[in-house]
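Notes continue from the previous slide.

Worked example: a multi-chain complex. Inputs as given:
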Amino acid sequence: MNKSAHNFDAYSFSKQPDYNEAEVRQAFSKAAPLKTVVVYCYDPRVTGIPKAVANELGDVFPGDVLIDENGNKAATTTTMFEVIVAGGRATDALRSVTVAQHLFGIENVVVVHHSHCGATSFTADGIIDAYKHEHGLDISESYPRESVCIGDYVASLEHDVRLVRESPGTPAHVNVLGYFYDIDTEQLTKVVEDLAEVRSAVAS
Ligand SMILES: [Zn+2]
């Protein structure tokens, strides 16, 4: 790998001489009124998902980027951040949920799987075998097997809602929801719901 001669420290918060982590975090918390992280597939046919989820939950999306007095892009009015990954599988989103909570605070994590998804077109064994034969590479231990593809929509949504809920980076106050999205009708169907208030009622 070639090493770059560039230096981008001027653009890094933590590289500034007066850097104070707590103060920077405080400033970040005011830069986005975040409520919801939505996890969905990178399929170009499903770009309507975040807007559909925003309508369902009352979120602002895409919102506007706000410019400060120095002309810099400093904040946003959106209440929803996207995590766009193959199949919308939650395994790839856990770190992003943690960071969103740390910087902005969140109320909801929404996982959306969609009709006619490419992730339903292959099996875990199929992709592992293909990699072995086509590239001489063993990916059998690289990813959690149950998150490699989608075999059954209800099972995959239930799995992903449970995965987000059980992630140490998901605080108890967060609602976790799983939806199915029909790419042709653009309709969302709620499949799994793990609400924070239900959990606190059960716990008390
Ligand atoms: Zn897909």
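Summary box: Helices lie at 21-29, 49-57, 94-103, 124-135, 153-166, 196-203. The chain has a mean pLDDT of 96.
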